[in-house]
Amino acid sequence: MSDRDLFANFARMRREMDQMLGDAWGRGGYASRRTTGFSPNVDVYYCGDPQRAVVKVDLAGVELSEIGIEVSGRRLAIVGERPVQETEGRVYQQVEIPSGPFRRIVELQVDVDAEQARASYEDGVLRIDLPLRDPAETTRRVPIGRD
C-alpha cells in the first residue's frame, strides 16, 4: 500500500469517527447543522502527466456564486453556504441534507502550484485541479558571501 493510500484511508476513518461521535454527543443532529453549518464530503486523488492533485467536493444545491476557494501551501480551503430549505407547513420524517455555511479544509500531501490551480463546477460537484509543484522550483541555493 502506498503512503498516499494510507493517508487517504486515515483521513476517511477520521472523518467517519468525527461524524459518528458528533451524532453520539448531540453535535451532529439537524438543529446543530442549521446553526453551525456542515462539512461537505470530498475525494482527493493524484493523477496525470503532468502530475496533479484533484479534489472533488459534493456541493449539490449550492450556487456557484456562494463558493470560495483558497490555496495556501499544502492547505486547500473551500467555503460557502447551502441555503436553508423552506420548512413552513412541513412535518419532516427525516432530514439528512445539511444546509447553512460550510468551510472544508483539505490538507494535501504534496506541494502544489497555486498559480496554476483550476476549478470547475458541474452537476453539484466542484472539481479543483492543482498541478504539483516541481521540487526544483522550491529549492534555492544560497550563496555564501565573505564579510
Structural notes for this entry:
- The chain is an alpha+beta fold and 147 residues long.
- The protein has one domain (3-135): Sandwich (Immunoglobulin-like).
- The protein is 22% helix and 32% strand.
- The protein has 3 helices and 7 strands, in the order H-H-E-E-E-E-E-E-E-H.
- The chain has helices spanning 3-24, 30-36, 135-138; strands spanning 42-47, 52-58, 67-72, 75-82, 100-107, 118-122, 125-131.
- The strands form 2 sheets. It has a 4-stranded antiparallel sheet with strand order 1-2-7-6, with no helix packed on it. Strands 3-4-5 form a 3-stranded antiparallel sheet.
Largest sheet: 4 strands, antiparallel
H/E series, N to C? HHEEEEEEEH
Biggest β-sheet: strands ordered side by side in the sheet: 1-2-7-6
Percent range for β-strand residues? 25-35%
Short summary:
With 147 residues, this protein is α+β, with helices and mostly antiparallel strands. It has helices spanning 3-24, 30-36, 135-138; strands at residues 42-47, 52-58, 67-72, 75-82, 100-107, 118-122, 125-131.
Write the layout of secondary structure elements.
Layout (H helix, E strand, L loop, with lengths): L2 H22 L5 H7 L5 E6 L4 E7 L8 E6 L2 E8 L17 E8 L10 E5 L2 E7 L3 H4 L9
Antiparallel strand pairs: 1-2, 2-7, 3-4, 4-5, 6-7
